[in-house]
Write a structure and sequence with these properties.
4-stranded mixed β-sheet; 3-stranded mixed β-sheet; elongated; alpha/beta
Length: 283
């Protein structure tokens, strides 16, 4: 490392099935600045990052994925952002080199962050943050801790820093369409009650529409003596309103599911061992 400051490197093995842990342990045995954490199984990206943040002790903490799409050479740019007085510096990719699915997922994630937190720019998981906010993040008791959203909610003053973005060197992303949708839903219901309020407003408008249609039928039937045909229109109305109700029940169900998850108080992850020089057997 060419950094002229003290540092530590924390690597998290999130239930990998290749030689990642073996390589991490060898590096931690050779370098006292390297710490290797292995989890008992694959818990996902955000719990793995939370596991790393729980062990971070530096005044400034850099978060990055291990696929090297964000080159480590760009780290000084993030640290310069913190040197300007900001609490959070996140990488803004000059030219994103991801597949279409990841691009769409990031596009909607940015929309959600703009809507609920007022962030701007192509925010990414490649970031540097001050220790104060890492400690506050670790103290948050909830599960499904989406770190970018929590740092913003905690009031971190942020700046976007333009960084290079490389193509994936090997392997494939494990983010499927299902996982991306699940992440976007989690982001939304974890940080905002807006969907619930929106369902109430739409429900009120749909009720007014139903009342207006009912009044129209009464006027045509009893005042204008107009015969009202229409099993087809009645069927269409029932299907439409039934679909709206099921949609709203699904939104309410997402919030109830989050309440159920929180009340179980299960941990986000479980650490099997932590390896560093002088402690080769882990702890």
């Amino acid at each position: 490392m060419s950094l002229k400051i003290s540092y530590e490197i924390i690597m998290v093995d999130d239930g990998s099935r290749d030689r990642s842990l073996e390589i991490m342990r060898r590096l931690s045995d050779q370098d006292p600045n390297v710490i290797a954490i292995t989890l008992t199984r694959n818990f996902g990206q955000h719990p793995a990052i939370a596991a790393g943040l729980s062990q971070a002790g530096g005044k400034m903490v850099v978060i990055m994925d291990a696929d090297l799409q964000n080159p480590p050479e760009e780290i000084p740019k993030l640290l310069q952002g913190l040197d300007q007085g900001y609490d959070l510096a996140f990488g803004v990719r000059k030219e994103r080199k991801d597949n279409l699915l990841r691009r769409l997922g990031s596009f909607f994630a940015v929309l959600i962050l703009k809507k609920f937190f007022g962030t701007s720019g192509n925010i990414s998981a490649f970031m540097a943050v001050r220790q104060q906010f890492v400690e506050a993040f670790n103290a948050c008791p909830e599960r499904n801790k989406f770190f970018t959203g929590l740092f913003t909610w905690l009031g971190a003053r942020s700046i976007g820093v333009e960084v290079e973005h490389s193509a994936r060197l090997s392997g494939q992303t494990h983010y499927s369409l299902r996982k991306l949708v699940q992440l976007l839903v989690t982001m939304t219901v974890s940080f905002s009650e807006y969907p619930l309020r929106l369902t109430s407003r739409i429900g009120f408008l749909v009720s007014l529409l139903g009342l207006a249609l009912a009044l129209r039928v009464v006027i045509q039937k009893f005042l204008l003596q107009v015969e009202i045909p229409g099993y087809a229109s009645l069927f269409a109305a029932v299907v439409f309103f039934g679909g709206v109700q099921l949609l709203f029940l699904g939104i309410i169900g997402e919030y109830l599911a989050r309440v159920h998850i929180e009340t179980r108080r299960r941990p986000d992850y479980l650490v099997r061992a932590i390896f560093k020089k002088g402690n080769p057997l882990g702890r």
